[in-house]
Specification:
Function: Catalyzes the reversible conversion of 3-phosphohydroxypyruvate to phosphoserine and of 3-hydroxy-2-oxo-4-phosphonooxybutanoate to phosphohydroxythreonine.
Enzyme class: transferase
CATH architecture of the largest domain: 3-Layer(aba) Sandwich
Bound molecules: pyridoxal-5'-phosphate
Number of helices: 9
Shape: globular
Strand order of the largest sheet: 2-10-9-8-5-3-4
Distance between the termini: 34 Å
Cofactor: pyridoxal 5'-phosphate
Keywords: Amino-acid biosynthesis, Aminotransferase, Cytoplasm, Pyridoxal phosphate, Serine biosynthesis, Transferase
Pathway: Amino-acid biosynthesis; L-serine biosynthesis; L-serine from 3-phospho-D-glycerate: step 2/3
Radius of gyration: 21 Å
Structural class: alpha/beta
Amino acid sequence: MGRIYNFSAGPAVLPEEVLKEAAEEMLDYKGTGMSVMEMSHRSKAFEEIIQEAEKDLRELMNIPDNYKVLFVQGGASQQFAAVPMNLMKNKVADYIVTGQWAKKAYLEACLYGKANIIASSADKTFSYIPDCSDLPVSEDADYVYICENNTIYGTKFKTLPNTKGKPLVADVSSCILSEPVDVTKYGVMFAGAQKNIGPAGVVIVIIREDLITEDTLPGTPTMLKYKIHADNNSLYNTPPAYGIYICGKVFKWVKKMGGLEVMKKRNEEKAKILYDFLDESKLFKGTVAKEDRSLMNVPFITGSDELDAKFIKEAKAAGFENLKGHRTVGGMRASIYNAMPIDGVKALVEFMKKFEDENLS
Ligand code: PLP
């Protein structure tokens, strides 16, 4: 069997040339006679890999010098605790809850201090982004938290909230590198790599230097202290070395493709193909407010659980994998991250048209 079109929300599709290159280097990385998987993280070869990965990411995202880039572990979920443990000096933080990942982060913060929900879209099953232009930001809030792209529900903040001067903390797991961003608008951004970058096991934290302090909450584990990772250039302990190496290759691929402006155009083009079809279809429909639609995760339904199941089964047989919606919401979801080719989206829409013709009664 050849490669299928993989619409998984994560771990997700990687650029084919990255996988091929990694395969070629598997037994002998650049004359070292070993795989990066077998290499000491203190070796010169690995030092070059991690330094170059950081350099390329900084270039791609235009990350200013007063921000640190950390490669850490523990999944994006670990950051739900690391953020309050490092940032909750006043033990107060404001959360905007636009889906399950933001809710999980909020619940985690409740373990460490007073976390307030200052806006939410739970009233309409997270199908929109609330107006965040004038929020009741707490005077003593240490930060305001968002999940910028809601992987499960398929919504995205098109405008960042007005945090009234408080640092913005954003979970960008499912939108990092999908379009240019102004890093200076954020205090902290973090992302699990397994969506738009690739290998699960790596988490990228981009944090403004003044937010990195010794003054963490009592009991903060050493491994969760941003300062430890910053002071040690992400080499305090053994990092997820092979994953970082693949991240570096993906950064090079994004650069070669033309950078984030080009990624944005490509992603808009892909998403438009799918959303235009959903808007016209007599069988399928999108589930979220049009103005808040994500470029990365596109949920849709037929309105019938039976037809949804039939579609997912037939799509799989035709080579379109992982189209089942998140287990908590059902329906379908096509995740169309950077590495999904336009042809994959076109082929999916053709398949959906055919399914519609065959199943419209
Ligand atoms: N945040 C977002 C936006 C996600 O989509 C996910 C996972 O899908 C997570 C956090 C959790 O990531 P992890 O499994 O790396 O902890």
